[in-house]
């Protein structure tokens, strides 16, 4: 049995960490560290299965497996540099659940290998509500030995499904995460545009919803309902903040540019996410691109 630590108690990080502590087969409590220490202290107070520490070095040195779930590439790079500088990482397994550029994942894997540690890229598919119910999917890319070490903490513990990319470069998981989200964000863009056109031409939202439910059931139907509900301009803590979409679009645009691919749909999504980020701030909902598309079509931002 492995001892396990968790670095990064943000919106999704905290939820997944709680499930790990509650359902995971770890030896002893999960050791947690967060940049804002109070969040770790507060979480510690909720469960005997969680212990807060005050430094990355303590989190790393007290466990065999160290999970990270941090906001962006710079924070991830910083955390690994601190771990390598302040403690001995040899023999440790680092599992990175953050969404990062494939080049960032590859650089961390290479750096850790130099110091005798292993790296698994493990991005998360699905938002906070799915994470609460352990219904998220994760991808795992890295050596099969490292995947076997982390497998007891995956299906039924923190997630429903794992897409295993055994003995494949860690970049593969990051690429899948980014391309998967390109599909998700583009679907939302199309639903927003279809909804605006329907309103302008006098086709009721109810009729459009019926079509989507019958012919393209699944997440799209739920997303259309969310647009109708006006949650995109009412909710203060959105499930997908626009800042997250801006980060991922930047990574996707970089990938497209470096590989000579023209992604016109991504251009459109990026235009709208950048506008929302500029006009409504980084904590606005990704769904607020609906309001932006409405404004571009002569409708008020709010529906
Ligand atoms: N939320 C989702 O629905 C979702 C879904 C799939 C994947 N993801 C990915 O999962 C990761 C975490 O998402 P989240 O929703 O938990 O993000 P979040 O709520 O924004 O939290 C970000 C976390 O990163 C920490 N952090 C930020 N800058 C840091 C730095 N310079 N050094 C150390 N720690 C730093 C924050 O610490 P403080 O508490 O001190 O600010 C916090 O723990 C992201 O990469 C995101 O893209 C999120």
Tell me the strand order in the biggest sheet: 3-2-1-4-5-6
Rg of Cα set: 20 Å
Low-confidence stretches: none
For the sheet with most strands, the description reads: 6 strands, parallel
The coarse overall form would be elongated
Strand content: 5-15%
| Number of DSSP strand runs | 9
Known CATH architecture of the largest domain: 3-Layer(aba) Sandwich
Ligands and ions found: NADP nicotinamide-adenine-dinucleotide phosphate
CATH homologous superfamily of the largest domain, by name?
NAD(P)-binding Rossmann-like Domain
SSE order, one letter for each helix or strand: EHEHEHEHEHEEHEHEHHHHHHH
Might you state the CATH topology name of the largest domain?
Rossmann fold
- N- to C-terminal distance: 53 Å
Determine the number of helices (DSSP H or I, runs of at least 4 residues).
14
> What is the total domain count?
2
Query: What's the rounded overall pLDDT mean?
Result: 96
Give the helix level as a range of percent: 40-55%
The CATH class of the largest domain, by name, is Alpha Beta
Structural class: alpha/beta
Describe the structure.
With 303 residues, this protein is an alpha/beta fold. It folds into 2 domains: 4-169, Rossmann fold, CATH 3.40.50.720; 175-296, N-(1-d-carboxylethyl)-l-norvaline Dehydrogenase, domain 2 (Orthogonal Bundle), CATH 1.10.1040. The chain has 14 helices and 9 strands. The protein has helices at residues 11-23, 37-44, 56-61, 73-86, 102-114, 128-132, 144-150, 171-201, 205-215, 219-229, 231-234, 242-258, 264-280, 289-296; strands spanning 4-7, 30-33, 50-52, 65-68, 93-96, 118-121, 124-125, 137-142, 161-166. A 6-stranded parallel β-sheet has the order 3-2-1-4-5-6, sandwiched between helices. A 3-stranded mixed β-sheet has the order 7-8-9, sandwiched between helices. α5 (102-114) links the parallel β5 (93-96) and β6. It is elongated. It starts with a strand and ends in a 7-residue tail after the last helix. The relative contact order is 0.09. The mean pLDDT is 96. The structure holds NADP nicotinamide-adenine-dinucleotide phosphate. NADP nicotinamide-adenine-dinucleotide phosphate binds at residues 8-13, 34-36, 39, 69-71, 75, 78-79, 98-99, 124, 127-128, 239-240, 244. One of its GO terms (molecular function) is NADP binding. Residues 3-153 form the 6-phosphogluconate dehydrogenase NADP-binding domain. Belongs to the HIBADH-related family. NP60 subfamily. InterPro entries: 6-PGluconate_DH-like_C_sf, 6PGD_dom2, 6PGDH_NADP-bd, HIBADH-related, HIBADH-related_NP60_sf, NAD(P)-bd_dom_sf. The active site is at 177.
């Amino acid at each position: 049995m492995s001892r396990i630590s968790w670095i990064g108690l943000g919106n999704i990080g905290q939820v997944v960490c709680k499930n790990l502590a509650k359902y995971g087969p770890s030896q002893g409590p999960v050791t947690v560290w967060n940049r804002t220490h109070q969040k770790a202290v507060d979480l510690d107070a909720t469960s005997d299965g969680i212990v807060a520490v005050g430094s990355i070095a303590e989190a790393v040195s007290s466990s065999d497996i160290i999970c990270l779930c941090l906001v962006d590439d710079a924070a991830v790079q910083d955390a690994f540099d601190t771990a390598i500088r302040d403690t001995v990482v040899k023999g440790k397994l680092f599992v990175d659940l953050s969404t990062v550029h494939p080049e960032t994942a590859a650089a961390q894997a290479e750096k850790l290998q130099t110091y005798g540690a292993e790296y698994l890229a493990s991005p998360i598919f699905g938002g906070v509500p799915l994470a609460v119910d352990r219904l998220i999917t994760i991808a795992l890319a890295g050596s099969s030995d490292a995947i076997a070490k982390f497998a007891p903490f995956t299906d039924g513990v923190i997630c429903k499904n794992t897409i295993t990319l055994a003995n494949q470069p860690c970049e593969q998981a990051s690429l899948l995460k980014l391309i998967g989200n390109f599909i998700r964000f583009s679907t939302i863009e199309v639903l927003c545009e279809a909804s605006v056109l329907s309103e302008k031409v006098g086709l009721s939202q109810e009729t459009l919803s019926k079509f989507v439910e019958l012919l393209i059931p699944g997440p799209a139907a739920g997303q259309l309902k969310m647009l109708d509900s006006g949650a995109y301009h009412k909710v203060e803590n959105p499930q997908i903040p626009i800042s997250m979409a801006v980060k991922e679009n930047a990574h996707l645009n970089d990938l497209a540019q470096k590989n000579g691919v023209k992604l016109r749909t991504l251009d459109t999504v990026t235009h709208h996410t950048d506008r929302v980020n500029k006009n409504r701030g980084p904590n606005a909902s990704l769904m607020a691109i609906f309001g932006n598309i409405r404004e571009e079509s002569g409708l008020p931002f709010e529906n």
